[in-house]
Amino acid sequence: MAVSCSHSSILLPPSTSSVGFNRFPRLQTLRFKSRNVYQKARISTVSASSSRSLEALIFDCDGVILESENLHRQAYNDAFAHFDVRCPPSSSESLNWSLEFYDKFQNLVGGGKPKMRWYFRENGWPTSTLFESPPESDDDRAKLIDSLQDWKTERYKEIIMSGSVEARPGVIRLMDEARAAGKKLAVCSAATKSSVILCLENLIQIERFQGLDCFLAGDDVKEKKPDPSIYITAAEKLGVSVNDCLVIEDSVIGLQAATKAGMSCVITYTSSTSDQDFKEAIAVYPDLTNVSLKDLETLLQTIVTAA
After folding, report:
1. Which of 36, 40, 250, 304 is most buried, judged by most C-beta within 10 A?
2. Which residues are the active-site residues?
3. CA 230 to CA 216: how far, in whole Å?
C-alpha cells in the first residue's frame, strides 16, 4: 500500500425555513453569486523569483471530491422522518430542512449535534417517537440529540455506500492524469478519518485510495483548518517543498490553511461556498470538468507577486 501517512428532498415549508434567523443578519443577507472562472496574479508571500513546479497535487475531500452537504441534509431529514420529529411541536409534519435553508445554516453552525441543539433551542424542543412531549431536562435533551445524530450518521454511511453517489466532475480524471505524469497525490481533510476513508473507498475506489502517496484526516493533526498544520505535515510526508504543492479546496477556510502553509491553491466552489472571498486563490472554478493537469502546471509556473 503506497499511502505513507498514517491512515488512519423534501422542501421545508417557507414559514419554517426562516424560523429562528431573525437575530442572525448573516443568514438573512447571505446570497450565492455566480462566478466566472478567473485567474489572479497574486500572493504577497511568493516572490517573483520563487521557483515553483507542480510536484504534488493535494485534494480536500468534502466539497472537492464529494459535494457532501446535501447528502448530510438528506440524512438529517431521513432521521427526522424516522423519529417523527415535530419542530415546533405544533407542526403537522415531520421536520425537513430545505436546500436553501441548509446551505445557509451549515455556514452558521458547525457539527451535527450543535446544529440540532441550536435549531431546537431557537424553534422549540420537538416532540418525537423518542419523547412524546418536548424534553425539558438537559439529560433528556442530550439523549434526543445523541439518538438523532447516531441514526443520521448510519444513514449517511448507507447513502455513501449505496452506489448512487459519485465524485464531483473532473476529480477522478485529474487524479489519473497526475498519477500518469508521476506527480504525488494526497488527500487532506479536516473530517474524521473513518468518514473520509468511507468516502474515498466508495467514490474514488479502493485502488486509487490505496495508491495515494499521503492521506491525512482531522484526527492526524492537533489543529484543524484554517490552521496550516495538515498541509505542512503533508508536504513533510510527501518529501516535497510547499512551493511545489498545489491544493484544491472548496472553501475560504481551506484556502487559508493552504496559503498559510505557503502553498498555492485553486478553488472548486459549491453552492454553499460560492459567495466566499477567494481572492487569495490562483484560480476559481465551478468544478474540475475542464481543468487539466497542464492547466494547473501552467498556473503554478506563472504566479507573480501582486502589484
Report:
1. 250
2. 60, 62
3. 7
Q: Cα 303 to the chain's mean position, in Å? A: 26
Sequential DSSP letters for the chain: ----S----PPPPHHHHTTT-TT-HHHHH--------EE----TTS-TT------EEEE-SBTTTB--HHHHHHHHHHHHHHTT-BSSTT-SS-----HHHHHHHTTTS-SHHHHHHHHHHHH-PPB-SS-SS---SHHHHHHHHHHHHHHHHHHHHHHHHTS---PPTTHHHHHHHHHHTT-EEEEE-SS-HHHHHHHHHHHT-HHHHHT-SEEE-GGGSSS-TTSTHHHHHHHHHHT--GGGEEEEESSHHHHHHHHHTT-EEEEE--TTTTTS--TTSSEEES-STT--HHHHHHHHHT-----
pLDDT tens-place string over residues 13-41: 333 333 444 444 334 333 333 444 443 33
Question: What residue type is assigned to position 51 of the chain?
Answer: S
